[in-house]
Amino acid sequence: xxxxxxxxxxxxxxxxxxxxxxxxxxxxxxxxxxxxxxxxxxxxxxxxxxxxxxxxxxxxxxxxxxxxxxxxxxxxxxxxxxxxxxxxxxxxxxxxxxxxxxxxxxxxxxxxxxxxxxxxxxxxxxxxxxxxxxxxxxxxxxxxxxxxxxxxxxxxxxxxxxxxxxxxxxxxxxxxxxxxxxxxxxxxxxxxxxxxxxxxxxxxxxxxxxxxxxxxxxxxxxxxxxxxxxxxxxxxxxxxxxxxxxxxxxxxxxxxxxxxxxxxxxxxxxxxxxxxxxxxxxxxxxxxxxxxxxxxxxxxxxxxxxxxxxxxxxxx
Length: 316
What we know:
Elements: H1 2-17, H2 30-43, H3 49-67, H4 73-79, H5 81-104, H6 109-120, H7 124-134, H8 138-165, H9 170-180, H10 184-194, H11 196-210, H12 213-223, H13 235-249, H14 254-278, H15 282-288, H16 290-314
């Protein structure tokens, strides 16, 4: 069984990376990769848990930086201006609501704070950054990451159909996805499924939103009265901005640019989604518990519905 798990695990990654479209076959998309990862996690025990965890983290960061080489900073800032305004209101609102509802539901204070951070900013990345500042233990981190990953997986499948049902433009969908979907990987995946403009808008707004990790970490130090926690600064976001500047004012040779944007960035993100899906084992789902999952769902509905209404009313 373990040998079979290894073969299937490595085979799926290879199939994602191989340019199947060169042979007239459809390339494995982001939702399909996530679904394959989920099926794998529920059938097999992950044969490479440590590799899976580290690779999904760093591959996502490399892929995001590579995306920057396909974006013009002036056009991207213009398309993402409305989303930046929503970011300020939604981050503060979700954090406040999460803390209050978590207290009312008698959920562990640190767990509810971590779930609110993941929902308000950028999913697992925010939780991983804030957790050490909180001095959260392994159980608190596991539960918080578990609920966010579960909802993040669901979002990739349901958001594009909802966007089409509401007749959203690509800019509207990209803005909404960046605000209402937790992790950068699923935001970018959903945007890519919806269209190129949605992809670019969602990526820019989500990465702008992720910068809130830095002030949130310092606010967390004050709220939990501990100045010894480490702050994990998301340096890859700054590298993404540098890549956009390079592409705008000093573009790379077209062959290198195509390699970075189409292969490293796009295929890297699809592999990342498979790895994330493969980490969602039944034991993780069971470990989450009802109350934290309910809190995460309530926050997700609140930000999803409110941001959807605002986007439909204000974004063209």
